[in-house]
Design goal:
The protein is mainly α and about 475 residues long. Helix 2 packs parallel to helix 4. The longest helix is centred in the C-terminal third of the chain and has 53 residues. The two termini are about 25 Å apart. The protein has a single domain, classed as Growth Hormone, Chain: A (Up-down Bundle), CATH 1.20.1250.20. Helix content is about 80%, strand content about 0%. It comes from Euphydryas editha. It is found in: Membrane. Its main location: membrane. It is a multi-pass membrane protein.
């Protein structure tokens, strides 16, 4: 069946569309400090001004607020469903941009960033939800398209800054979240969520609607429902003390392994420059080139390269194994970060300048490598690796790790650049990525083209059963 006539592709793409529109708004949100900071730090600004320390705290408050967001929205997602989580995230980010537009003091800027920080869990939840809705063979491509949408939002933010004020950009940034909210109303609820809640008839309906009624899909659906029936039956015989159940879940081997993998992947994403490059790339390139206008245009070029890289990564994710992509692209990124440090050290320490344009080109090349391989594959694995029964607590706990690391990166990057310069900043981040890659080499299993249940069984160490026991529920 051609893609044009594949009705199930279009139904899954409806979820992708809502996710992508939300991600455009996320790109605007993550890049907004690059637009806001130069204005509120400038003594010549017609707006109110803040100190450099206050500006870094405003940027970092987004991450610290995310800790609370991860403690609230993922559990609500497990109780009320995936659509409910999307509604919450779009409302929070949209309201945050409205406060930015109306802000007349530093306190209002803090409030806007904190409210948006509550929706920072969307960085994880969008990948997890998309993985539940789409076909295993499309999963990597869909999640990668979603990441490209973040880059489009970032490009819009940096490009609009050439002509518009940060208030005008904040007003425009509200509209993607309104559109995403409307499209989300058209979804069916996730079959995985419905099975987890014991709503098996609705699960049947949603799964067939999304994937079609074929023997293979019927078998996958039966395995999904059977796994959740066994989990629900087991939970009935356990003590109802929620604290004991919670603590027991935290100590389960499959949770600990998936938590470790996701946490390391998160550290790699942060250290390779996914977020601090969005917010501070202008300052980084100004320090290297000494020319603000060149730095601004290089920033726009970086966003264009990011979109190209993420577009190419759709093919890369579909064609190569997850581990191959991660370790190849990750190693190249480490080498490029160390090269940036070395060239800057030679220039600042010994006055040896090897082509004035070489260091900016290496930085832009690293942006390309990171977004073509490291970021897409990390988020793809994050969307796949958490077992269904742990997705609520897993998204919450790993999300807390993510937000703490994100906040630290946003707060410490300007300080590191001030104290250690480009040399120390890129060296430290390069070492972090290298340590993460070495650890994952021993603990990460391959997930390409496997169903979420197959991945879950590997995480738990279970052998795949070839048939469903006869005494289990049969689908009509």
């Amino acid at each position: 069946m051609s893609c044009v006539k594949d009705i199930f592709l279009w139904r899954q793409s409806l979820v992708l569309l809502s996710d992508c529109i939300h991600s455009v708004g996320t790109g605007l949100m993550l890049s907004f400090p690059a637009v806001l900071n130069p204005s509120i730090l400038s003594p010549k600004s017609s707006e109110f001004t803040v100190t450099p320390d206050e500006a870094s705290w405003i940027a970092a408050s987004h991450g610290f607020a995310g800790v609370f967001g991860f403690c609230i929205i993922p559990p609500l997602m497990q109780i009320f469903g995936r659509k409910f989580a999307f509604f919450c995230m779009n409302i929070l980010v949209g309201v945050g941009f409205l406060i930015f537009y109306l802000a007349n003091s530093a306190a209002a800027l803090y409030a806007a960033r904190i409210i948006q920080g509550l929706a920072l869990c969307g960085v994880y939840i969008t990948a997890i939800v998309l993985a539940e809705y789409c076909h295993p063979k499309r999963r990597g491509m869909f999640i990668t398209i979603k990441k490209a949408s973040v880059a489009i939002g970032s490009l819009m933010c940096h490009a609009l800054a050439l002509y518009w004020t940060w208030r005008q950009i904040a007003l425009i940034a509200i509209f993607p979240h309104i559109a995403s909210f409307i499209v989300t109303c058209l979804w069916h609820e996730s079959p995985a969520f419905l099975a987890m809640k014991g709503r098996y008839d609705k699960c049947d309906e949603a799964y067939i609607y999304l994937h079609g009624d074929t023997p293979k899909n019927r078998k996958d659906l039966e395995e999904l429902i059977t796994a959740q029936q066994e989990r629900r039956q087991k939970s009935k015989h356990e003590k109802k003390d929620r604290l004991l159940v919670f603590l027991k879940q935290l100590l389960q081997k499959d949770f600990l392994r998936s938590f470790t993998i996701v946490s390391i992947l998160t550290m790699i994403i942060d250290a390779c420059g996914r977020y601090y490059m969005l917010a501070y790339i202008v300052e980084i390139l100004v320090e290297i080139t000494g020319d603000k206008s060149v730095a601004v245009y290089c920033t726009v070029g970086s966003d264009v390269l990011t979109i190209i890289a993420l577009s190419m990564s759709c093919f890369i994710i579909r064609s190569f194994k997850r581990r191959t992509i991660l370790f190849t692209a990750g190693t190249l990124s480490v080498l490029l970060m160390f090269s940036t440090s070395l060239l800057t050290f030679l220039k600042t320490g010994y006055g040896i300048s090897i082509l004035s344009w070489l260091t900016p080109v290496i930085i832009l090349l690293n942006v390309f490598i990171v977004n073509a391989g490291v970021v897409p594959v990390c988020f793809t694995i994050i969307g796949e690796i958490l077992p269904l029964e742990h997705k609520g607590i897993g998204a919450c706990t790993t999300g807390i790790v993510f937000t703490i690391l994100y906040a630290l990166v946003m707060k410490l990057t300007p300080m590191m650049m001030e104290k250690t310069g480009i040399v120390g900043t890129f060296s430290i981040y390069g070492v972090c990525v290298l340590v993460g890659l070495v650890t994952l080499y021993f603990v990460l299993n391959e997930t390409k083209d496997k169903t979420l249940l197959e991945i879950e069984n590997e995480i738990k160490g279970n052998k795949k059963e070839s048939a469903i026991p006869n005494n289990k529920r049969l689908l009509s």
